[in-house]
Write a structure and sequence with these properties.
Blueprint: H1 43-49, H2 57-69, H3 81-110, E1 114-118, E2 122-125, H4 128-135, H5 138-147, H6 152-156, E3 162-164, H7 168-182, E4 187-192, E5 200-203, E6 209-212, E7 225-237, E8 240-243, E9 249-252, E10 255-267, E11 274-284, H8 290-294, H9 298-310, H10 326-350, H11 357-360, E12 361-366, H12 373-384, H13 389-399, E13 400-403, E14 414-416, H14 417-423, H15 425-445, H16 450-456, E15 459-460, E16 466-468, H17 469-475, E17 479-482, H18 485-495, H19 497-503, E18 508-510, H20 517-523, H21 526-536, H22 540-543, H23 560-585, E19 594-599, H24 608-624, H25 627-631, E20 636-641, H26 649-666, E21 675-679, H27 685-691, E22 697-700, H28 712-718, E23 722-726, H29 729-738, E24 743-746, H30 750-762, H31 767-770, H32 772-782, H33 793-800, H34 807-826, H35 828-840, H36 847-859
Parallel strand pairs: 1-4, 1-12, 4-11, 12-13, 13-17, 17-18, 19-20, 19-22, 20-21, 22-23, 23-24
Antiparallel strand pairs: 2-3, 5-6, 7-10, 8-9, 10-11, 14-16, 15-16
Helix pairs in contact: 2-3, 2-5, 4-20, 7-36, 10-12, 12-13, 12-15, 14-15, 18-19, 23-35, 24-26, 24-32
Bound molecules: N-acetyl-beta-D-glucopyranosylamine (NBG).
Pfam family, one: Phosphorylase
Cofactor: pyridoxal 5'-phosphate
Catalytic activity: [(1->4)-alpha-D-glucosyl](n) + phosphate = [(1->4)-alpha-D-glucosyl](n-1) + alpha-D-glucose 1-phosphate
Amino acid sequence: MTSVIDPKTIGKPVRPRRHVRTLTGYTPETDESGKEKWPRGDEKTWKEGFRSVNTEVPSITKSIVNHVQTSLARQAYNLDDLGAYQAAALSVRDDLILNWNETQMHYTRKAPKRAYYLSLEFLMGRTFDNALLNLGLKEQYREGITKLGFNMEDLLEQERDAALGNGGLGRLAACYLDSSASQELPVWGYGLRYQYGIFQQLISPEGQQLEQPDPWLAGGENPWELPRLDVTYEVRFYGTAERLPEGRALWQGGQEVLAVAYDVMVPGCYTKNTNNLRLWESKPKRGFDLNSFNAGDYEHAVESSNSAAAITSVLYPNDHTTFGKELRLKQQYFWTAASLADIVRRFKNIGKPFSAFPDYVAIQLNDTHPTLAIPELMRILIDEEEIPWGKAWDIVTNTVFYTNHTVLPEALEKWPVPLMEHLLPRHMQIIYDINLFFLQAVEKKFPGDRDRLARMSLIEEGFPKQVRMAHLACIGSRKVNGVAELHSELVRTTILKDFVEFEGPSKFSNVTNGITPRRWLDQCNPELSALISKTLKVDKSVWLKDLDKLKELLPYAEDAGFRKEWAAIKQRNKERLAHHVQTTLGLTVNTHAMFDVQIKRLHEYKRQTLNILGVIHRYLTLKQMTAAERKKVNPRVVFFAGKAAPGYYIAKLTIRLIVNAARIINADPETRDLLTVYFLPDYSVSLAEVLIPASDISQHISTAGTEASGTSNMKFCLNGGLLVGTVDGANIEIAEAVGENNVFFFGHLTPAVEDLRYQHMYHPVPVEEKCPPLAKVLDCVASGMFGDGGVYEPLLNTIRQHDYYLITEDFESYIGALAMVDQAYLDKEEWIKKSIRTTANMGKFSSDRAILEYAESFWNIEPVKVA
Ligand code: NBG
């Protein structure tokens, strides 16, 4: 086949957006009487061919065997665990697709208002187990798989994590998808289908973090997604934007790439509702760039096609830092442009005027990463739909909502103006226009206040000038929220203070984060889940969707029999973790010790350093004790896990110190029964699922005011682990919920932090004077107790000089808090009571509650149950 291309069409504006719909979304036509018409062929024949979800063991095994035979082209003779997992997964996928298809069709028919959750990260973890539990088919599958000669647990272990996220922000997005589907809300996620997720972490013998790519799709087909090769959009970069009369502009030329949709099914818990997570993959538009090809520059043409595919190749592994990299900005625009094109197309199918857009669409920005949705929606409305500026701005500011996830200055996104002008010339024009109108309004309210204008401008002066994305997200949104009470208050009083003064406080609110109890209790701690159902005398489908029911466990804290069962489950979870460490690292863990866990991204503000220095302090103290004194000591095993951004030198040094301290401490025959330390490499959602149920205590010890919320704190407490923490983020609300006597708080409070930093800067006191026990620990590290002390010099200097994260200020109260933990642990019965009370009071932290708050207070959407 040959086709002739008219050179005049090259680089011209995009054709009207349309795509041929195949798998979902058709709505039936009706005849004169209103009866639905069957679209084609013989209705009865069609309907006889329909199948429903397989719920009985024989139909399940049949489906698995069919997939072995056909999808995998294998037989019972040559089927290993991986093959059996794939066949079983494909069988579950069939069921999910049925529900998913029905859900999408139902939403299309009902045309309710929908919400779209735009997140650059979705840290989904594994799907198989979660899907089975949500479908209520786990036991049937277990029986079927056993009948086929396999072991369920072994098959579950075959699945690779979908690790398309860095940490809490990405995992929160995944929890919110689970809750949206479980609460039957019409919510879709939009993200990117990275070829490489967060890197795999290896630890060298010296304790160095090494990174390796995570080609999570390399194993072939991913059963949990559906490629939708018919759903594609063209996305433009670079080129020129020429202003036309009436505020419009013509953006043309540059590079065009294709966004292709991959749909991930998100099943709700005990409901048919199965929502969609749409991930975009980039592709060259026509194999290669015709502009260059026509000009005879073949090499450049191919290069540009590579650059198109590169856009979604890798997740940026930086957590809480921005780098101003062009490819990252390309990712952000590619994803928001494709998502908005899709949202606008779906809206247009309803056939309403654009003034009704906010009645049908709510768009939630997960942090500032998708802020370009604001100028992009303006561009679509003005340039493509020919809507005047004022009306377009009304539509945008009634549709978009922004969640802030951090107040750390290094994490607030800014993009150099020259880069924006080059990559997105039309958007930069729009941003300048928004800024002008905005600043004029500010000037009107605060005449002559030039400092204020400079502070609030979307453009930060400097070389180069920068676009402040948080400001753009704020003024372009209907509501702005933080993720825990304290954090939301800090957003209002620090980074967006001027905006609160200008727009009034009602736009700024709080939605405390939540976690899904399906994954973070039922799935990761099945024995505890079963005990809860048995005790409350209700099916788990009830309390898993109404977590406040856990309160009814409170009286059982007084029941010795119940406490015994509770403690036995914790013990078995500790043994499960020990088994995992034994089989993966070959190390034997003392399961009779207290398990103390800190798992999260490595960051100075999260203060893993404080923890390891505390461990060393404990070690030094043990070394000085007599044998008789040691007998009274509460044995402790300390676990760390987490990744450091590849370029974050200090964080990597902390890992190195942990690994080397562990090596020395674990080898010391005098103390090793009382203290051991493990750094578990390659932290992931799946590893968290083993660690969390096993913890007696967990540490959430950020410098006050720095951790917006934290969400693992909620997971630990839901599983009956107690919390050691600073008065920060969601720790505060957890303490309020479970009772302050059930948590171990320490450290300075947020209002003190700035003063302390000022003192460190201008009136420094040497650590030897301020905190002698800490000085001793630092000296031991510097003198080479844990390998070459010189290596740690830069890390130790961050503490000795400036000490921005206040380790020297909080060290003593930290040690004090750990001593109180030891004291409390001596009384085992009382400890178990605390554990039970903690779990019982965690109802508030379900992501169902959080998502309903977004749905009701912000998005104004309602559940749409699929019958
Ligand atoms: C993180 C915060 C956490 C919070 C998660 C989810 C970013 C930018 N922020 O404290 O540091 O729990 O967001 O809200 O990743």
